[in-house]
Amino acid sequence: MTQSDITDLLRQWRAGDKQAINQLIPAVYDDLRSVAHQRLSREWDDRSLNTTGLVHEAYLRFLQASAITYNDRDDFLAAASRVMRNVLVDHARTRKAVKRGGGAAVGEIDESAWITEIDLDRVSNLDAALTRLEQLNERQARMIEQRYFGGLRLEEIAEATHVSLATVKRDLRYARAWLAAELSDEPA
Known about the structure:
Blueprint: H1 3-14, H2 20-40, H3 51-64, H4 73-98, H5 120-136, H6 138-149, H7 154-161, H8 165-183
Helix pairs in contact: 1-2, 2-3, 2-4, 3-4, 4-5, 4-6, 5-6, 5-8, 6-8, 7-8
């Protein structure tokens, strides 16, 4: 399916055609599976949430969405990044509620292993830090989400956020540094 076909399906869905999502998901399913697989490939020992489960949970949440504002594939994948973040955070909170204790401090962010080696006990801390970053700079928080939860390339982030590639690189560099400081309890 072409980018144009995906954009048409998104427009139909936004216009109220509830069946459009049923055509859209298969069209972007491989992209969503790839993103989910990257996030879950080398993570925790508890395999209660796998690639398929993450994609399907995201799909269910898209079905429940009331406000649809996706204009194209990149907008949709950016939204999928946020949905997958929420699924992982909810899963982490559920696991943490079951476990007693936990809450270990999170160290500095290692970009190569940051989200791909998810430790669900740390996702809540990361979510809280991202929420604080969102209050300071919403665009940077979205870029972090899109990059690390959604697996978008820098060029895709630039297109989805309507800024230059240089701005994406600068914002991500600042946001990563801010998050590293925030998660290690150092002043930002």
